[in-house]
Amino acid sequence: MARRTDPFGDIEDLIDVMTGGGLDPGGTPPVDVADTGDAFVVVADLPGYEASDLNVTLSDPTTLSLAAEREVETVAEADRYVTRERQRQAVSRRVGLPEPVAEDGTSAAYEDGVLTVTLPKRSTDSEEGTDIPVN
Description:
The protein is mostly beta strands. It has a single domain, classed as Immunoglobulin-like, CATH 2.60.40.790. It has one helix at about 5-20, and strands spanning about 30-35, 40-45, 55-60, 65-70, 90-95, 105-110, 115-120, 130. The strands form 2 sheets. It has a 4-stranded antiparallel β-sheet, with no helix packed on it. Strands 5-4-3-8 form a 4-stranded antiparallel β-sheet, with no helix packed on it. A hairpin with a 3-residue loop joins strand 1 (about 30-35) and strand 2. Mean pLDDT is about 80; it is low at about 20-25.
């Protein structure tokens, strides 16, 4: 008897192979950039990470760099995995800002998978990058 195929299942399997599992290949977290008048507020969705997994850097006065990396634990008692889609994942994003921002007064907070970075505006340029600690 001929095996019945599921064309949609076959397509999903092919997408999983091409993207490394799951429909979303990841790599670039979505962000919102709001102008509050005296500061820019950048909000990024980074679910599943710990604050210690995040690296937030002001590369230059108009560029914010976000990066996150996590390792996925293995189940020690497992003889084998039936399905394994969670794996080491790293994402990064560079966010261009329309005006230079001040290094002093920058802040970052991470809560419930959402990173919020506040960057006060400034008028002078500086050539050095600044790390922003995540609370």
